[in-house]
Amino acid sequence: MSLPVVDMSAVSAARSEVDGGHAAVARQIGAACSDLGFFYITGHGVDPDLIERVVAGSTAFFALPEASKQAIAMEKSGRHWKGWFRLGGELTSGQPDHKEGLYLGDELGMDHPEVRKGTLMHGPNLWPEVPGFPTFKHDVLQYLDELERVAHLVLAAIATSLGLPQNHFDATFRPSPTRLLRLFQYPTPTDSETRGRWGVGEHCDYGVLTILLQDDVGGLEVRARNGEWLSAKPIPNSFVVNIGDMLERLSWGRYRATPHRVRNSSDHRDRLSIPFFFDPCWDAIVEPIRELGGAPSDASPTPGDRWDGQDVVIGPPRAYGDILTDRVAKVFPALFQESARL
C-alpha cells in the first residue's frame, strides 16, 4: 500500500470543466480523502525555481549561528507568534519535538486592523538576514501566494467530491484565509538514542489542509486505517497533501484526519520540511456542512478510534481563530501564557 498520486495539471492552469479535468481530479482526491487522507500532488504549476530558492534560503537560515537565529526568536514577536524556536521548543502531545523551526505567515503591518486590535497570530513576520539570499523574504511571500492558489484548487476538488459546488468553501476561505508557513529542520541523528527518537510523534493536523514540501531525506510516516504505518517517500516535483481535524468536522467524518509522525531517517544529513497550512478565515464559523445532511452511519469514528480519543465532529460551532488559538497554546504553552499578559 502506498499514498496515491494525483496529477493536478488538468486544473492548475485554469478552473474549467471543459475537458472534464476537474471532475477527474475531484474523483481521485475524494477517493484519497476517504481512504488514507494523504496523497501526493504533481502538475501543480508552482515554479521549480521558486521552490529551489525557498529550499536553499531555508537551508542557509538553519545553518546560521544560534545567536543569529535567536535575534528573531518567537518570544520577541509578542502576540504575533512568529519567528524561530530552538530544538525541542515545540510540543506535540505534551512531548518536545526533536526539531527547530521558523514560524511565518501573512505579512501584516502594525496598522492592520487585526494587529491594532491585538488579535493573536496577526502581525509582521520576523525575517532573518540570510547571507547570499537577499530575496528570501520576497521568495517566501511569493511561495505563500502560490501555495494558496494550489490549495484553492484542492478545496474545489474536495467540494465537488462531496457533491457540493466547486466554490462552496469560498465563503469560509475568502477573502483572508489563515495561511501559516513553517520551516522545520530535523537534525542528523548522532547516536542510537537520537536515531530512535521521533522528530514529531503521532498526531493529526488540526486545520483543514496541509501542503508539504519535503526534501529527499524522507522520514514521514502515515498510519493507514488498518494500523499499518506507510512511508511517504519523497517524489520529485511533488507536494504531500493531508487533511486535518477541521475537514473531518466539516465533512461530518466522511473524510478523516490521519495520524502521522516524522523522524530523520538519514545518518548523515539534516532533514528539511516546509509545511503550508491552509485554513478558514480567522472569524469564520466552523461547523459540519449542513448541505451534507448529517453523518453517514459509517463515517465518524467513535472517540476511542482516534489516536487521541477525541471526537472532532461533535461540538458547538466555533470561530476558527478560537480553535487555532487553543491548539497552538498547547504547542507553545509558555508563549501563550506570556501573550496573555501583554
Beta-strand residue percentage: 15-25%
Overall mean pLDDT stands at 92
Largest sheet: 8 strands, mixed
Name the poorly predicted regions.
Answer: none
Q: What is the C-alpha radius of gyration, as a whole number of Å?
A: 19 Å
The strand order across the widest sheet is 1-2-12-9-14-7-6-3
Q: How many DSSP-defined strands?
A: 16
Q: What structural category characterises the helix and strand content?
A: alpha+beta
Distance between the termini: 50 Å
Order of helices and strands: EHHEHHEEEEHHHEHEEEEEHEEEEHH
Number of helical stretches of at least 4 residues = 11
Helix fraction, binned, reads: 25-40%
Judging from the principal axes of the Cα atoms, what is the shape? globular
Oligomer: single chain
Question: Quick recap of the structure?
Answer:
This protein is α+β, with helices and mostly antiparallel strands and 342 residues long. It contains eleven helices and 16 strands. A hairpin with a 5-residue loop joins strand 10 and strand 11 (229-231).
Protein model, in words:
About 30% of the residues lie in helices and about 20% in strands. By secondary structure, the protein is of the alpha+beta class. A hairpin with a 5-residue loop joins strand 10 and strand 11 (about 230).
